[in-house]
Design brief:
Blueprint: E1 13-17, E2 23-27
Antiparallel strand pairs: 1-2
This protein binds iron/sulfur cluster (SF4).
């Protein structure tokens, strides 16, 4: 069972897959703001930095 985490729905997350196939969620806010860990312990259930992914503008091209 996968526990839902805020990061999955946050515009700042990036999915990273290790060489062994494990998947990690990287927080891109960590680059600019030290209080956000690069790999936040999951699941994140509350986060001040959360911003919902804007699906209307999330084109992948
Ligand atoms: S800002 Fe918060 S919710 Fe968004 S990816 Fe980073 S830790 Fe997750």
């Amino acid at each position: 069972m996968t526990i839902p985490t805020l990061c999955e729905f946050c515009r700042y997350h990036k999915s990273v897959v290790s060489g062994k196939g494990s998947r990690f969620l990287m927080c891109q806010k960590s680059k600019d703001e030290k209080r956000y860990p690069k790999y936040p312990p999951q699941p994140v259930i509350d986060c001040e930095g959360f911003e919902k992914i804007d699906e209307a503008n999330s084109s992948t091209d």
